Amino acid sequence: MSAPTYDPDNIFAKILRNEIPSETVYEDEATRVIMDIMPRADGHALVLPKAASRNILDIEPASLAATIATVQRVARAAKAAFAADGVTVQQFSEGAGGQMVFHTHFHVLPRHEGVPLKPHSGEMAPADEIGTAAAKLRAALSAE
């Protein structure tokens, strides 16, 4: 059985090519950080490598290293920006692993003691909520 191939028309690839708008909060030569439009916690961000890969199973090690460094930076900023008690970092690989968009990405979710994650409802959050969270995260990232 052959490995699945990367689809260059997935939504994150389109976002990286600026074909679809996103609420970008950080970008460097290897990664882009956007706000999740269906947040499961206030401040839920996604870290995307710019290099094409489906998930952690096929990402090039250098791209993974750059991406995880950005994940760490965003996690620290998110904890500060949202006065969180902790941070959950998630990465899903392949459909059986829970992956829904087949471009490598990491979820960074600020967490508060005793507050469960919101269910994945498929409903987009209001743009002003996402914008407010993005501004907080952007400010924390620029203060580093």
Descriptors:
alpha+beta; five-stranded antiparallel sheet; HIT family, subunit A; 144 residues
SSE blueprint and pairings:
Layout: H1 11-16, E1 24-27, E2 31-35, E3 45-49, H2 61-81, E4 86-90, E5 106-111, H3 127-142
Antiparallel strand pairs: 1-2, 2-3, 3-5, 4-5
Helix pairs in contact: 2-3
Overview of the structural elements:
The chain has one domain: HIT-like (HIT family, subunit A), CATH 3.30.428.10. It has helices at residues 11-16, 61-81, 127-142, and strands at 24-27, 31-35, 45-49, 86-90, 106-111. α2 (61-81) crosses α3 (127-142). It contains 3 helices and 5 strands, in the order αβββαββα.
N-to-C order of helices and strands: HEEEHEEH
Largest beta sheet, briefly? 5 strands, antiparallel
Task: Give the uncertain stretches in residue-range form.
Answer: none
What is the gyration radius calculated from CA atoms?
Answer: 15 Å
Structural class: alpha+beta
Please tell me the overall pLDDT: 96
- With strands numbered from the N-terminus, the spatial order across the biggest sheet is 1-2-3-5-4
Q: How much helix is in the residues?
A: 25-40%
Shape estimate = globular
Q: What is the total tally of β strands? A: 5
CATH topology: HIT family, subunit A
Q: What CATH first level would be assigned?
A: Alpha Beta
CATH architecture: 2-Layer Sandwich
How many structural domains does the protein architecture include? 1
Number of helices: 3
Strand content: 15-25%
CATH homologous group name: HIT-like
Span between N and C termini?
A: 46 Å
